Every structure is written in C-alpha cells, then in structure tokens.
Amino acid sequence: MGSVAPMTEWAEITTVAELETVVGVPGERAANKERAALTEIDRAWLAASPFCVLATADADGRCDASPKGDPAGQLVHVLDERTIALAERPGNKRVDGYRNVIANPYVGLNFVIPGRADTLRVNGWARLVSDASFFDEMAVRGQRPVPALVVEIETVFFHCGKAFMRSRLWEPESWAPEAVVPRRAVIARELEPQPDKTLAELDDYYRPENYAKGLY
Question: What is the mean pLDDT of residues 203-216?
C-alpha cells in the first residue's frame, strides 16, 4: 500500500469562492427549489417512506447521522404543513442524535422510498416530546413511541437521484452484503466486546426471526 501524501501537498479548499471555482454554482432551479412548508406531493412522499437518516450536531459541532425506520405510513406523522413527528422505537439506548438535539436543536432529515433514486430532504428545528395526544396515531403493533422527535420545518426540497444511481443501491445484481465484510455476529464479537457471549450465541441472537422480536 502506498503512503498517504502529506497535507502540504493537498490543494485544500478553504473559502466558498474557491469551492465555487471547483464545483461551479447551482442553476436557478436547483438554487431556488427549497420550500418552507409541505405540499401534497411532500406529504405523499412522507407517507410512502419507510426509512430516513437523521443528521444532528452537538454544541461543539460534532455530527451524528442515525437511520430511522418504520412501516411506510407510520415513519412520519404530519401535524401540519410546517410540523412533522418521528417516533423513537426500542434500540440500544445510545440516542446520540437525541442527546445532540438537547444541545443543538437544528436537524436535517433525508427520506427514502425503496426503488426511488430521488429523496426528500427536510431541515428544521427539533424538540423531544415524551408524550402527546398524537402518539396513539404513531403506534405500531400496539406500541406507542417513547419519545418522539417533533420537527418544525424550515426548508423542504427534493434531492436528485445521482448518488443512488452511481451506487446502484437498488440493483439487486450489485448486492453482495457478506462478500467482503463479515456477518453481524462476527462484527459484534470482534468490535463490541461481549465476553459472556460465544459466536454461536451471537449468531442466534442476530438471526432475523429472533432479532425482530425486539423491534417494537
């Protein structure tokens, strides 16, 4: 393997003017496509999306990007044209993103529909809510969210599909999930120390039919 070139040899970009010289400036349509409220098309997208990525940063600017998923139609609850809510479901309790929200409430969300290359982006101000009347409408398998993330929308817009097209994300013939990276149980055994668990026990824990028991 070759060595990494020293930073003194890098042509670093440090100003917006330099950045625009390298990548150019957006056309009028791209520059002005942000909206301040949900349209009916946005609502339809949110209703069809089962997955999103939540981006947050703490008070010092350290970032986190966390996946969120639920059945389509239950991932997002639209409160009004400027407000949405996402449910928190059982997990490992790290809640890195939610810790960030308490310190810095500005968030970014990217909503995905399987098979679609374009995505819907939402940016805005978030708060954590431990209970509300709309929680009943967000229940899955009888389980209400605890807590929910309520986002007051500042901007919403659609993002083009070139990243998904370049990555061939939705093309099954490009999938090889265990060709290079070991299975989840091996990762847990080697990188997340659990001295009381054997590899066989971890394999059993991560079997889809077992792991799915803790989803809700």
Answer: 91
